[in-house]
Amino acid sequence: MTPPRITPSEVDVQQAEKRILRNGVALYWLASEDFEVLRISFVFRAGSSVQTVPFSASAVVNLLSEGSTERSAQQIAEQLDYYGSWYDVNIDRDYAYVNFASLSKFFDRTIEVAEEILLRPAFPEEELRTYAAKRKQRLAIDRTKVDIEAREAFARALFGATHPYGISSDEGLYDSLTRSQVVDFYRRFYTAERCFVVCSGRIGERELQAIGALAEQFPHGSPEIEPPFPTPETVHADFVAHPGAVQSSLRLGRLLFPRQHPDFVGMQVVATALGGYFGSRLMQNLRERNGYTYGVVAAMVNFERAGYFAVATQVGSDVTREALEAIYHEIELLRTEPMPEEELELVKNMMTGEMMRILDGPFGIADVTIENILCGCDNTVIGENVRRIRRMTPHDVWVLARKYLARKDLVTVVAGAERPW
Hints:
The chain has helices at about 55-65, 75-80, 105-120, 125-140, 145-160, 180-190, 205-215, 265-275, 280-290, 320-335, 340-360, 360-375, 380-390, 395-405, and strands spanning about 15-20, 25-30, 35-45, 85-90, 95-105, 195-200, 235-240, 245-255, 295-300, 305-315, 410-415. By secondary structure, the chain is of the alpha+beta class. The protein has two domains: about 15-215, CATH 3.30.830.10; about 235-415, Cytochrome Bc1 Complex, Chain A, domain 1. A six-stranded mixed beta sheet has the order 1-2-6-3-5-4, sandwiched between helices. A hairpin with a 4-residue loop joins strand 4 (about 85-90) and strand 5 (about 95-105). Helix 1 (about 55-65) crosses helix 6 (about 180-190).
């Protein structure tokens, strides 16, 4: 007998506790006794949008563990491996993320290494040159692929070629990146004013004290006077020629708004209906009916100071025009015909189910907590968003699609063998 399907209409997510450390760093924690593990995430407002030297932001976060004043890169890696600790970094346009995970019984050893990595990185010249050479080669190879060409061109089309969210620096600039530039970025942006910490898992007062003692050592930085954030300069069509390409990479969308906007969640519903799950309208059209592609996605993308709607896919070069018209057609259908109730209910269930999957476990809740902090919210917003999704009607979807997805407002970028227009 098949068990009944239960779709939650309310989601009650654990709230992070918070304390402000002596240097002003906010320390959040989500305690859970379910597993003997814990994770510590240090988040710095040190993404690529604040750099003045190309690639300096990503170089800093990726070189933190490549040697400290006490240990070499190999010794740091061996220490983490010996205790089964996990270390990971990530960076986007706005923020850099440094994560440590450890078995509870090896927390002390892990926090020792974390302190070296975060507070006493050496940025050895030899490691920098090796890193720069590898990244230069990888970026050069990536830029021979139509999907990377389209992704970078789409960012330029949305924001402008010199905008912090749109710029694509020449990979040759890795050669001129110096250690002094890397150290300068670290000193300016890895400071108490630009940091917060989120801990999750088996966290007790002893662990909080140790993490707080580390974070309290972040120095105060000089006041950063950032230049005014530039206004995007959007162009509505761009083509990147890639002679001989057997596939075209397509990007469609438009600038909209960040996650704090009251219509952001509604537009997530619109995007999910179009291309957010396997049975979405674009998948049914481009893959199932026409065989143009293996996959297509649509989503709302959130930055600190901007947000946009995007559709992305790769199709055979010989069906580029047809695929573009199919995408335009599905968008226009949402603008002219209300969705069937059954389809919208499926979309709501998919979105709610994905949210529950993400929130399964303390580390998933911590990831969502970080995202909410960055948006100026606490975890009560998760329940609010579920209620917003559940309240959406076919009329609401139609109104949002008409308001935001007119064809004249869409940006279209194609990378491939032949210009489709």
